TrEMBL record, chains A, B:
<dbReference type="Pfam" id="PF13377">
    <property type="entry name" value="Peripla_BP_3"/>
</dbReference>
<dbReference type="InterPro" id="IPR046335">
    <property type="entry name" value="LacI/GalR-like_sensor"/>
</dbReference>
<dbReference type="Pfam" id="PF00356">
    <property type="entry name" value="LacI"/>
</dbReference>
<feature type="domain" description="HTH lacI-type">
    <location>
        <begin position="2"/>
        <end position="56"/>
    </location>
</feature>
<keyword id="KW-0805">Transcription regulation</keyword>
<keyword id="KW-0238">DNA-binding</keyword>
<dbReference type="InterPro" id="IPR010982">
    <property type="entry name" value="Lambda_DNA-bd_dom_sf"/>
</dbReference>
<dbReference type="InterPro" id="IPR000843">
    <property type="entry name" value="HTH_LacI"/>
</dbReference>
<dbReference type="GO" id="GO:0000976">
    <property type="term" value="F:transcription cis-regulatory region binding"/>
</dbReference>
<keyword id="KW-0804">Transcription</keyword>
<dbReference type="GO" id="GO:0003700">
    <property type="term" value="F:DNA-binding transcription factor activity"/>
</dbReference>
<protein>
    <submittedName>
        <fullName>LacI family transcriptional regulator, sucrose operon repressor</fullName>
    </submittedName>
</protein>
<dbReference type="InterPro" id="IPR028082">
    <property type="entry name" value="Peripla_BP_I"/>
</dbReference>
Length: 329, 329
DNA sequence: CTGAAAGCGCTTACAG
DNA sequence: CTGAAAGCGCTTACAG
């Protein structure tokens, strides 16, 4: 491999000078610059990032921690992140916790040891060890999707999104509304969305049957199963609408209803959250909420870049959303 | 940051010894090992990857070059790759060419400079500059989805998959079959899939109207547009089936047909390729081909790991596929 | 405007 | 079984 020393020799300058022209800092005479550039181009020389990083403590790499890599939300977010960091010459180092909370902590430390310049975490839960690890790493850090005390967080407005959706369902005349959610160790999806739903229901003077509340695990199959349980638990007293906290589970629920010959929305209405591509093309098309995941990714990246410049903006940012009314309600 | 020197001092050994216990090589007395481990744990010491990489020329990072990050295929493949490399302690450095051929080359060089231990490229085209760049990099290298001469390639069996699908359409009694493809600078999707289609058609003694052949750009919208053009170009003489080379474009085509009040499959049958999640939940459910993307990713990673061990296996691997018959034909 | 030298944090022959 | 020393390829005060 050709190194800075080779370039220096070939261009007849010191490696200090080579470094200066490559990084565009300090004084360099025009003739020296030209000689160096010529050699650099001729050899196709690329500086060693390890050496540079060892010396400068910066790597040009952003660590991204995902709960699950092959997910529509994740890939949208990563797309958004990549769009802005790539422009600034950063790369993304990707890790996947597979929804294992322990791995979130492990990966933060790992990314730290790799000298990443910053980390974006798509958190799924909040706990003290996680918070401590983040603090120890002492790195520019963004949490996306969950509010983490003391760290810059971009969160979706789960509470109000759920309220709006529930409101809309009620306005359509539904009084018997079921709920398919996820576990409450996930503050955003599990707690906030449920809270928005329940409170809106109660404010409308309605009630939710215990047997109409089920929990899945984000998968399509779990939506199918939850729907099945709700239907089987309430013969002769079916809900007329189901509020589902994710599109994927909603699609699973729809699948079960269709199998049972129940018409959507005439017999049972369904809503999702997430605005997955699929939500638009299932039939009936699914009423859902767009969280603008890509934009959230863009924003996360921009905030991280700001933190890299020392502009300290430790705040909570609430992401916009948009209710998309389609044919499933 | 605590370094190997700190650990050495605290454990009362040389840093040579610390290195030995950390990397588990060379002789170390039990007592020395214990002292070192105790200090390492107490301090939470993590070795600097840059320093290590500078010294050893290995980084523990695998570079992955994607044509588009936020795509179902890509995320499945990456999921597969990650599953195997993570187990071996490798990380993934992700780059996205946004379908820009120039960037494929640029990223190979960039990843090289970052001392990645190997590269997996989801290629979209083949050209000499690309091939040269790969050769120059002189790194363990896997091409996924396109056959690249001289480099280990995992390819989908586009030709036979197309043949099988076309065959199936013909067997259902269709004689007037349209085609929606992509540009032929993509040898796998653009050329091979088309070839499999055309040849099977001709062997069956059928013909394809010029106006029934259209090209999209992988997007749902382009499938919609292509379908529209086909329908509008052939009033009174519509095809009875459409072979579409990707699920997304097929979904777009279905959307247009439904809007026009054409029934699928009674009026026009549709097929896709890719087995996207969506294909199962659109209505009617889409007949398609599963390419086992995740397994392809797994395999790519395994082959790369083998190459890292110097087991030289420069070969072409043909990936399996499976025709999924559903309701759109 | 330019270069010699120190140093970033590791690993690895080499010598004992 | 252990350590001193060289060196990986850079950048950055410092001195001129």
């Amino acid at each position: 491999m050709t190194t800075i020393n080779d370039i220096a020799k070939m261009a007849n300058v010191s490696r200090t000078t080579v470094s200066r022209v490559l990084n565009n800092n300090g004084y360099v005479s025009e003739s020296a610059r030209e000689r160096v550039m010529k050699v650099v181009e001729a050899t196709g020389y690329i500086p060693s990032v390890s050496a540079k990083s060892l010396r400068t403590k910066r790597s040009g790499v952003i660590g991204v921690i995902l709960p699950k890599i092959s997910t529509e939300t994740a890939s949208r977010v990563v797309g958004g992140i990549n769009e802005v960091v790539a422009k600034e010459g950063f790369q993304i180092l990707l890790t996947d916790t597979e929804l294992n909370h322990e791995k979130e902590i492990e990966y933060i430390r790992l990314l730290h040891s790799r000298h990443v310049d910053g980390i974006i975490l798509l958190a799924t839960n909040v706990n003290d060890r996680l918070l401590n690890t983040i603090e120890d790493a002492n790195l520019p850090f963004i949490s996306l999707g969950q509010e983490l005390p003391g760290v810059t967080s971009i969160v979706y407005d789960d509470y109000h999104a759920s309220r709006d959706m529930t409101h809309m369902i009620i306005k359509k005349g539904h009084k018997k509304i079921a709920y398919i959610g996820v576990g409450e160790d996930d503050p955003a999806v599990g707690v906030l969305r449920k809270q928005g739903f329940i409170e809106t229901i109660q404010e409308a003077g309605l009630e939710v049957e215990e047997s109409w509340i089920r929990y899945g695990d984000f998968s399509i199959e779990s939506g199918y199963e939850s729907m099945k349980q709700i239907v089987e638990a309430s013969p002769g007293n079916l809900p007329t609408a189901v509020f589902v906290v994710t599109d994927r589970m909603a699609v699973g629920a729809m699948e079960y209803l269709k199998e049972q010959g129940l018409r959507i929305p005439q017999d049972i209405a369904i809503t999702g959250i997430g605005a997955s591509v699929m939500s638009k093309y299932v039939s009936p098309s699914l009423t859902t909420i767009d969280y603008f995941n890509k934009e959230a990714g863009t924003m996360a990246a921009e905030l991280l870049l700001e933190q890299l410049q020392d502009k300290n903006t430790k705040k909570k940012f609430l992401q916009n959303y948009r209710l998309i009314e389609r044919d499933s309600v």
